[in-house]
């Protein structure tokens, strides 16, 4: 397997991550953490492949547990992030509402 | 054809995730970020599920339903419990990576040595190692934050702690190298199981020497590990979406950890291997110092006369669930023409940004939340600094006392305000076990009691007095 392209993606994505995260408002560090948590639950992709593939049962059980864990993170991560973000308001009514 | 569609789906999902984080740069657009994240994830799930290799659907549906059943209640926890929820979700993320890695290894084992190239083996082992140590480490952190009985709250230290931890990690790495070199050996499956056990154990041992005040850093580091384990999974599966999303998560955790470390003037290694608890028996000051206690009546009078009041919240506010009472006090003071600001220290609370979320929950406009570096130059002009359950982050010893364990940590200069009221639950020292000179300053008056009750009393004073004006 040629791993250079994947390594490339990793390095470039890390630079994008550092650049984007650095500009995230300090007010939002807690929601940021729950959001990145939900995003990195993209491990769901690997879990689906293992759970749904034509593999021995014990392998698919491991996959199903992993799928459950990832799905929990996706659901609770996005929901709680939105719940927290809804609370951030300015003192001028209407201004922070849009978004 | 199918390959093209799925790769295109992953590419769009990657872009969505980058937008999601980009929109977090201001509260005005942040919710858009959540929608972008949901869209990206949904797209990735659909595209993956549609892969021709995915032929069994019942278990997928069951696992997804179970994820909703557990995930929805987990998103409704009180906001004071958000640090432990976050730690728990890092544990779930670690578990997912570890389990998929385990499944992949035993699968490829059946396909012979060609399927386990050295590069793939290194990625697999990294995935499993990071995944399982994040699992147990995060569970320990969540247990500490939730104050579960059988999880020790105070740092646990013992002789040769770092040495034995390194030996443990070293033997794990040695096993990993041996497997990488001989993936087809008959003992490889057993050795792989050994790596799993060592990783699980290492996660526990890594967290038990760390105290509650260091939790913001630890949570950020675990966040980073969870992301990196997803990256490793991406290398194993040759999936660039996993690598991108994991790298975004990893760099987010890294940046947050660096911010937390700077805010405590400590290094990564010092947080992870320093065992803060050891300094507890530092020094007892010779003479008994005396607090000046004040009543809510007196404090209310002073607050009413002030032009500028700065409220400095800390973990004590979260513990007492005092944020809504703080909001009432804020309203009363604003009504009287007093300017009120909140000074937020980066490590106040138990995770990055903890105080901001609690105050936002209480409907305090985020435009009145001010960062430490912004408020400090103005502190001498502040009439009253009201410390609500914060301790180390306002301890002037960090500036003046070279023997203090927190020396060098940037603090909010509450001691420079014209007068200080400090709400404190008891007369005991704070979490780090360090005396706080601020409480003995001649400008400081103490309000002893639970933060919620004390502020409630203050609000009552204002409510009762409002008729007289």
- Distance from N terminus to C terminus of chain B (CA atoms, Å) equals 78 Å
Report the C-alpha radius of gyration of chain B, rounded: 26 Å
Number of helices of chain B: 17
Low-confidence stretches of chain B: 276-286
Please specify the SSE layout and strand pairing:
The complex is a heterodimer of chains A (99) and B (469).
Chain A: H1 4-22, H2 29-40, H3 44-52, H4 57-87
Helix pairs in contact in A: 2-4, 3-4
Chain B: H1 2-22, H2 30-49, H3 58-74, H4 82-110, H5 118-146, H6 161-181, H7 188-207, H8 215-237, H9 240-264, H10 268-273, H11 296-305, E1 308-313, H12 315-320, H13 323-335, E2 339-344, H14 354-361, E3 369-371, H15 372-375, E4 384-388, H16 397-400, E5 419-424, E6 444-448, H17 451-465
3D architecture notes:
The complex is a heterodimer of chains A (99) and B (469). Chain A has 99 residues and is mainly alpha-helical. Helix content of chain A is 72%, strand content 0%. In chain A, helix 2 runs antiparallel to helix 4 and helix 3 packs antiparallel against helix 4. The radius of gyration of chain A is 18 Å and the shape is flat. Chain B is of the alpha/beta class and 469 residues long. Chain B has three domains: 1-75, no CATH class; 77-277, no CATH class; 296-468, Rossmann fold, CATH 3.40.50.1220. A six-stranded parallel sheet of chain B has the order 3-2-1-4-5-6. In chain B, helix 14 (354-361) links the parallel strand 2 (339-344) and strand 3. Chain B is elongated and about 80 Å long. The chains are: A mainly alpha (99), B alpha/beta (469). Chains A and B meet through helix 1, helix 2, helix 3 and helix 4 of A and helix 1, helix 2, helix 3, helix 4 and helix 8 of B.
């Amino acid at each position: 397997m040629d791993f250079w392209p994947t390594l490339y993606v990793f390095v470039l994505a890390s630079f994008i991550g550092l650049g984007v995260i650095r500009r995230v408002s300090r007010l939002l560090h807690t929601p940021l953490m729950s959001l990145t948590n939900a995003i990195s639950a993209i491990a769901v992709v690997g879990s689906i492949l293992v759970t749904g593939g034509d593999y021995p049962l014990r392998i698919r059980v491991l996959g199903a547990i992993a799928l459950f864990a990832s799905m929990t993170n996706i659901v609770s991560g996005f929901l709680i992030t939105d719940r927290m973000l809804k609370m951030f308001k300015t003192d001028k009514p209407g201004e922070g509402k849009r978004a | 054809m199918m390959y093209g569609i799925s790769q295109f789906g992953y590419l769009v999902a990657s872009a969505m995730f980058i937008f999601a984080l980009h929109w977090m740069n201001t509260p005005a657009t942040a919710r858009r970020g959540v929608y972008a994240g949901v869209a990206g994830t949904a797209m990735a799930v659909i595209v993956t599920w549609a892969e021709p290799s995915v032929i069994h659907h019942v278990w997928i549906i069951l696992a997804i339903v179970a994820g909703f059943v557990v995930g929805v209640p987990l998103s409704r926890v009180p906001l004071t419990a958000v640090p432990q929820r976050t730690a728990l979700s890092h544990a779930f993320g670690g578990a997912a990576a570890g389990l998929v890695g385990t499944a992949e290894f035993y699968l490829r084992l059946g396909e012979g040595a060609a399927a386990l190239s050295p590069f793939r083996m290194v990625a697999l082992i990294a995935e499993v190692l990071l995944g399982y140590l994040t699992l147990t480490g995060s569970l320990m952190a969540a247990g500490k934050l939730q104050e579960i009985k059988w999880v020790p709250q105070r740092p646990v230290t013992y002789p040769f702690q770092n040495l034995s931890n390194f030996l443990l990690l070293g033997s794990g790495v040695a096993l990993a190298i041996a497997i990488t070199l001989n993936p087809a050996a008959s003992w490889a499956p057993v050795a792989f199981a050994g790596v799993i056990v060592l990783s699980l154990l290492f996660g526990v041992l890594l967290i038990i020497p760390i105290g509650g005040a260091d939790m913001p850093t630890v949570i950020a580091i675990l966040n980073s590990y969870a992301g990196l384990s997803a990256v490793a999974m991406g290398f194993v599966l040759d999936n660039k979406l996993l690598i991108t999303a994991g790298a975004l998560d990893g760099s987010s955790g890294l940046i947050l950890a660096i911010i937390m470390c700077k805010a405590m003037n400590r290094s990564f290694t010092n947080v992870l291997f320093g065992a803060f608890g050891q300094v507890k028996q530092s020094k007892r000051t010779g003479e008994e110092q005396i607090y000046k206690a004040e009543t809510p009546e007196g404090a209310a009078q002073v607050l009413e006369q002030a032009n500028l009041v700065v409220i400095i919240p800390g973990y004590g506010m979260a513990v007492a669930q005092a944020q809504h009472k703080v909001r009432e006090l804020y309203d009363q003071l604003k009504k009287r023409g007093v300017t009120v600001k909140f000074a937020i220290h980066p490590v106040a609370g138990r995770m990055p940004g903890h105080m901001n979320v609690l105050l936002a929950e209480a409907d305090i406009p985020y435009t009145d939340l001010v960062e430490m570096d912004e408020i400090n130059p103005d502190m001498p002009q502040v009439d009253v600094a009201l410390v609500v359950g914060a301790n180390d982050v306002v301890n002037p010893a960090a500036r003046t006392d070279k023997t203090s364990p927190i020396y060098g940590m940037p603090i909010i200069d509450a001691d420079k305000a014209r007068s200080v009221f400090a709400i404190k639950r008891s007369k005991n020292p704070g979490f780090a076990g360090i005396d706080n000179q601020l409480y003995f300053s001649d400008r400081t008056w103490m309000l002893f009691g639970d933060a919620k009750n004390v502020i409630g009393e203050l609000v009552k004073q204002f409510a009762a007095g409002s008729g007289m004006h």
